Amino acid sequence: MESKQVEPNPYAKNCGSRQVIDRIGDRWSVLIVLTLADGVKRYSELAQRIEGVSQKMLTQTLRGLERDGLVTRTPHATVPPRVDYALTDLGRSLLGLVSGLEAWATSHLGDVEAARARYDAREGRHGSAA
Amino acid sequence: MESKQVEPNPYAKNCGSRQVIDRIGDRWSVLIVLTLADGVKRYSELAQRIEGVSQKMLTQTLRGLERDGLVTRTPHATVPPRVDYALTDLGRSLLGLVSGLEAWATSHLGDVEAARARYDAREGRHGSAA
DNA sequence: CGGTATCCGACTAGATACTG
DNA sequence: CAGTATCTAGTCGGATACCG
To answer: Where in this chain does the record put each HTH hxlR-type domain (chains A, B) (predicted)?
Structure first.
């Protein structure tokens, strides 16, 4: 078989690496992975910890992460029911990157907000007072 | 709720750091920053290099990045017109992270695809054929 | 060339109601 | 407790048309 393995290129629209970037970029994925950083969590813990996520989005994102092999889902047949979520090795391999993202967001938030304020102030003077 | 300056916390829905994560997470933002990594580019070069982006999304994302202080926009009053885009220092500070993202996506693409195939195969046996 | 404005369809995400 | 199903509003994003 001579199907050449071209290197993954996120600029190419058909390349799967773009899907991977999409998943990482997902607003809830990042927060979920971050929340699972310090160990296994149950569904309700995630829901509580991640402010503003709806049940639908939480479940949906969790399923996506599970599908991509980043988290494991472990249901317990107890009553009341209980489901545990944890990072896989693959998920953990992403942790450094994701917490780097959080760190960047946290430390450069001020810069970004200042830049926005500057830009928005500029909007007003398009040549005429508005 | 809280006018006190608490430390940025992406879990809190009102915290700006979530907006920052959103911007980074944006599918086109990542690709644009990556494309600008090796220097200034003009609008048409970006459009060409980033496959599948529409003019609307390219301009819109570029404006967002400019507003957030990550890229500069430099129009030249020549004919035909020409606009150059480049990363700011802030934008460059993000480069390591973003290319780390690309590297992760590239190197773990196979794992993710395998996990997906495994998961999807599982779907078929929910107890009923479908 | 490098946009902007508008229209409109497709997908997203939230609220709600119900189930194992 | 941990979901699933459904409905719907809002947003996103592509195509098109036109301007500086």
So the answer is: 15-113
B52: left (phi over 0), alpha (psi -120 to 50) or beta: left
Picking from A23, A93, A104, the nearest residue to B94 by CB comes out as: A104
Each residue's pLDDT expressed in tens, for chain A with a length of 130 residues: 444 455 566 667 667 677 788 888 888 999 999 999 999 999 999 999 998 899 999 999 999 999 999 999 999 999 999 999 999 999 999 999 999 988 999 899 999 999 999 999 887 655 444 3
Q: List the single residue in B12, B23, B100 with the smallest CB-CB distance to A97.
A: B100
Q: Contact at 8 Å (CB) between B85 and B40? A: yes
For residue A59, the enclosing domain spans 16-123
CATH code: domain of residue A55? 1.10.10.10
Domains contained in chain A, number: 1
What is the token pair recorded at B67?
Answer: 């507003």
Q: Under DSSP, is residue A42 helix (H, G, I), strand (E, B) or coil?
A: strand
Q: CA-to-CA distance for A75 and A88, rounded, in angstroms?
A: 16
Identity of the residue numbered A6: V
